[in-house]
Amino acid sequence: MPQQTPTPSARQTELLEAAYQYALAHGLAGLSLRPLAEVIGSSPRVLLFLFGSKDGLLRALLARARADELALLDRARKPDRPAGLVPAVERVWAWLAAKEHRPLLRLWAEAYARSLVQPDGAWAGFARATVEDWLGVLADCQPPSERDGRDGATRRTLALAVLRGALLDLLATDDEERVTEAVEHQLALLRD
Predict the structure, then answer these.
(1) Residues 101, 95: contact at Cβ < 8 Å?
(2) pTM, full prediction
């Protein structure tokens, strides 16, 4: 029988949300429990009690960030009325390029990179899960005739690579106009 995760207490939920807001503003690199606890109105001992360890807190923060990412992806997903790959990528890119989403996306980029170089512990599987999530959404946007073939998988993989690369470039340079033009150019090629 699978082990059920206990429902978090109101205090755990409150502290997780406060820690998440802190992580959005400051990232996760060098996260230390004592300064974090002070900023969010707690103590390191309480955080350890509620999350089990620093890695447990990091896993909870990554799950919270992933929940935001999945909420975005769910808005793009319409498997019963697939919009097509190009319109889906246009919608996703518009969301990714919006300035108000940059804190979440910087946190995503940090977690993605750490998952690649520290594949164990709190970061385990984050990058792979992200790729699978995004490919699943893009597949749901493709009509079944395209989705189910090898070419459909190749096209959504290319679309994801363009989105991810453009996002990293945007986060590094803040040059939204140049990067958006490149995404639009690639979308024109995908239409053909």
Answers:
(1) yes
(2) 0.80
